Amino acid sequence: MAMYGLLAHTHDLVDLSWTTRWSPDQPAGGPDLHFQVRDGTVAVTASTTAARLLLEQHGFVPTADGASYRTRDGLDERGLLGAVTAAEAHAYTHGLSARVHLGIPTPADIPASTRRRSAPATGPRITPSAPRRTR
User: Fold this and answer.
1) What is the pLDDT of residues 26-51, one digit of tens each?
2) Cβ atoms within 10 A of the Cβ of 90, count?
3) Which residues, 6+ apart, have CB-to-CB distance to 81 below 8 Å?
């Protein structure tokens, strides 16, 4: 079920992956935009005025405390991903850095299972049969 849900949005997820837009020439430090997708909601923080203006162009609204942004009400899952994809791509064209956390575990988040040693076989022992006599 989880894999089906993941594959339904494969292209969006690949587009939103921070490694898609990563460049060794990009300065270290925090991104201009930080998207957090979780449980059918999107929260965004913007660290620059240009990033805040860009979010407002894409319909994101400031939260009551003014520290972050959210998507407008009434968007389904596809609409949420579309809003994030459009804003992230637009930010990229303006040279703004963005980091998107999709809220799904990656293989690195899944703990390795403990290795179990196989138990020795406990079935009946087969002993060689006695040689037959020939007449």
Assistant:
1) 555 678 999 988 888 899 999 999 99
2) 16
3) 9, 12, 16, 37
Q: What end-to-end distance do the CA atoms of the chain give, in Å?
A: 69
| Phi and psi at residue 31, to the nearest 5° | -75, 160
Q: In what order do the strands lie in the sheet with 61-62?
A: 61-62, 69-70, 41-46, 33-38, 98-101
Of residues 23 and 81, more confidently modeled = 81
Element (H, E) at 70: strand 69-70
Q: Which two tokens stand for residue 50?
A: 């240009």
| pLDDT classification of 23: cutoffs 50, 70, 90 | low
Q: What share of the chain is helix, strand, coil (3-state, %, to 5)?
A: 35, 15, 50
Give dist(CA 86, CA 83) in Å, integer: 5
Mean pLDDT of all residues in 50-71: 92
Element (H, E) at 69: strand 69-70
- Residue 41 in tokens: 């909601």
DSSP character string of 27-53: PSS--SEEEEEETTEEEEEESSHHHHH
